[in-house]
């Protein structure tokens, strides 16, 4: 379609049109390679509107892209326009009265955290790729991460959106309204829509009081049920102060402690890393946590006595992914089940997998406070991307147990290309039909990120 | 349509079919009278499905009704079936590991609060009609109330829904998943849809740690800007502990203190009633608040020294509505603007109203922490429902200023019948078109609560 593509030169600045060699075409996991006909990097929302109007008229596919850190292939352009939002990166407003910040889609998450920090506030979304992922992508995928237990997922942090619909219409709701019920809430349709309904160009996000004190403990527990019981006790007592409650298996800890050449804080089947924070500078949090653990008979534990000790404990959690690389390429699962079902899921799923693949290695860790697990499986003697030949077989087993335990196949990474054929298993046909109706109304020519999220029709 | 209506007797129990005299046909404000052809009160979700299947086939209008406490006429049946959900009132599960409760739509809000309390948890939604309003209605209208500042509106408290679509299809997502991103989030379409998309039959809701200590203060302030500055300071320091921050005008206080024959706690243009709570029993909250107010130079204030003093302060806030009845029938507004815009709105709106109606009396109070105001206006010498002849003129002026200050015409009461002609002013035509597409897909015969929420097409 050279004629259609040439038209962009008539209404965009030369610097808004990139060459293919200017962008990273491989995705984060080097599993997919994008093949766009054109890469556009608009400098303004007006340019996004012009691009969408033209693409709508000419039926040119458009794949919005942020920091290219997605793990499910949602931002991999297969022909058409790769719409890179990186240049829409202004912090538009910080509003202290309303505890809100208005930012453009291309802002890097860490820059938003820093802008909040400069205003003596917290923007709580925090995840491994925060140095390069972008807010638009975080919203489009409803990102999760480390602070969901206390502050919620991205969905819970969005007060308002500015969006460009597939036909170029701008719909803007960027004023911070804390109560508002005026018809169907379309903001929540766009959050988690992975670029299939339109382009998110800006958002008004919630800010919070900055934590002033932190108390961190590492607790060895006998079982996941024991860990859930500890979670319930901590939440009953400390309420919102609990911001992290991470579960680590004995095997996962052995990997990261070996990798770091560090001592294991406790000897146990399962380990919990929990953290409390408080906005008060003199909250007595550390002593209160020590007393709480003592009173609850939790002797197999360590409290961080300094920021350095805290970082040592967190390093054991954060280096599991790096430490497992020696095991080969993993088949990863981003799953969640109700917290009360985690123990049953872990037990049954391991039994099923071992029966099917006797030598399988399972690295299990995650955010127990959200019921969300990183459940990574390694097949010995199978290297590199060859492992993907076994992906469907492993997924079948894992997801069957996820569904038995009333869970979800996508907790915080989204659906993208790699899970869309599983959507039929978790959503009712009537819901999929409604999703398709919404999509068809907004995007009748199916130009917005085609081939992503929605299962292929039969 | 007698033939269609007779059919209900073939598949419902006799006790599921009421006579018109069994139900309250006037709405809460005695402004509208329902005129259904039939009143059904299903005992089970299966009965709801059977009713919807029949109504879908026969194109019989259905108006779902909960506690009949709505203020906008959303549950007033105009012909067809009035579907009263009161008998679907089981608490299905309390889940401590997941901090969740699963309840049927007809559960009275207070009964849900009490069930949470018995499990040593808090269900935080709290509003004036909690003794008779029902959870299904709270969800359908995205109810707000007193604890939104800390815990959010009903939308923020819903983990999952069970719904019956207009054609009778049951779609159930009642397992507590704290992270889940599997395509477009349809739960949020139903929340706030006011019965126009289907019937909500049950919900899984969030529970929280029960507060153990409370600190309450009444502070006189010079201006709303001064109040906003106090709000910002309190939130920065006490973070989530702040659960109420109520604004009361000098005139509103004079009414309620006169009505109660009680002393006014402070002498000031504006008054703030603020409350902190904490899950820790020995949190030192009272002393911390006293110290905070002293350090911030807030001398025109009173701290409640006992539960009785606390109740005396709250009575002054809660009796404003009762106290204003002597002024006649009011034209009420349920509005919200960004918190930073409240002062400007109040100033400009009063100026405009007084110019138009020189003798107008304005009773202004509300949840400043959410930017949400009860803005009640009284026209002297106009009694009873005669006042509604002036409603559009007053609304024009009030809503023009609401929109100038980037606010919403419906904060926590919904749209119903009385505000649907205003929806065009706050939603983009492309959004209304999408709403109509969603409605048409789910409800092609427009049987679900027709005439509510969506503006009449031109």
TrEMBL record, chains A, B:
Belongs to the FAD-binding oxidoreductase/transferase type 4 family. The keyword Nuclease does not apply. It holds the Pfam family FAD-oxidase_C. PANTHER family: BLL6224 PROTEIN, D-2-HYDROXYGLUTARATE DEHYDROGENASE, MITOCHONDRIAL. Residues 32-210 form the FAD-binding PCMH-type domain. InterPro entries: FAD-bd_oxidored_4_C (IPR004113), FAD-bd_PCMH (IPR016166), FAD-bd_PCMH-like_sf (IPR036318), FAD-bd_PCMH_sub1 (IPR016167), FAD-bd_PCMH_sub2 (IPR016169), FAD-linked_Oxase-like_C (IPR016164), FAD-oxidored/transferase_4 (IPR051264), Oxid_FAD_bind_N (IPR006094). Signal peptide: none annotated. The lineage of its organism: Bacteria, Pseudomonadati, Pseudomonadota, Betaproteobacteria, Neisseriales. Keywords: FAD, Flavoprotein. The keyword Methyltransferase does not apply. It comes from Neisseria lisongii. This is FAD-binding oxidoreductase.
């Amino acid at each position: 379609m050279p004629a259609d593509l040439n038209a962009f030169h008539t209404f965009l600045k030369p610097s808004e049109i990139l060459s293919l060699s200017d962008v990273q075409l491989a995705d984060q996991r080097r599993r997919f390679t994008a093949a766009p006909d054109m890469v556009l990097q608009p400098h303004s929302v007006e340019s996004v509107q012009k691009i969408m109007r033209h693409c709508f008229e000419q039926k040119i596919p458009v794949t919005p892209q942020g920091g290219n850190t997605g793990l499910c292939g949602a931002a991999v352009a297969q022909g058409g326009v790769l719409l890179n939002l990186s240049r829409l990166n202004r912090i538009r407003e910080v509003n202290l009265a309303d505890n809100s910040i208005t930012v453009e889609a291309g802002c890097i998450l860490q820059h938003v955290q820093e802008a909040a920090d400069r205003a003596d506030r917290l923007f709580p979304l925090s995840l491994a790729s925060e140095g390069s992922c972008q807010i638009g992508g975080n919203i489009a995928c409803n990102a999760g991460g480390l602070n969901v237990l206390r502050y919620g997922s991205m969905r819970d942090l969005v007060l308002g959106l500015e969006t460009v619909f597939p036909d170029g219409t701008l719909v803007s709701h960027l004023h911070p309204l804390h109560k508002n019920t005026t018809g169907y809430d379309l903001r929540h349709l766009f959050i988690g829509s992975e670029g299939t309904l339109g382009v998110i160009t800006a958002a008004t996000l919630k800010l919070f009081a900055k934590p002033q004190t932190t108390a961190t403990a590492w607790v060895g527990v006998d079982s996941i049920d024991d860990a859930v019981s500890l979670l319930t006790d901590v939440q009953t007592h400390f309420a919102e102060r609990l911001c992290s409650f991470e579960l680590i298996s004995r095997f996962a800890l052995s990997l990261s402690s070996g990798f770091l050449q560090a001592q294991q804080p406790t000897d146990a089947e399962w380990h919990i890393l929990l953290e409390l924070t408080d906005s008060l500078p003199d909250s007595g949090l550390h002593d209160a946590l020590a007393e709480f653990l003592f009173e609850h008979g939790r002797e197999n534990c360590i409290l961080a006595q300094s920021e350095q000790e805290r970082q040592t404990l967190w390093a054991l959690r954060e280096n599991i992914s790096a430490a497992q690389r020696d095991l080969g390429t993993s088949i990863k699962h981003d799953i969640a089940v109700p917290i009360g079902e985690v123990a049953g899921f872990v037990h049954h799923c391991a039994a099923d997998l071992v029966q099917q693949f006797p030598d399988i290695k399972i690295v299990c860790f995650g955010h127990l406070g959200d019921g969300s697990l990183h459940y990574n499986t390694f097949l010995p003697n199978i290297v590199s991307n060859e492992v993907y030949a076994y992906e469907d077989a492993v997924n079948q087993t894992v997801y069957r147990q996820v569904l038995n335990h009333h869970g979800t196949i996508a907790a915080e990474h989204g659906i993208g290309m790699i899970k869309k054929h599983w959507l039929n298993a978790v959503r009712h046909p009537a819901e999929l039909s409604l999703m398709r109706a919404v999509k068809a109304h907004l995007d009748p020519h199916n130009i917005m990120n085609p081939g992503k999220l929605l299962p292929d029709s039969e």
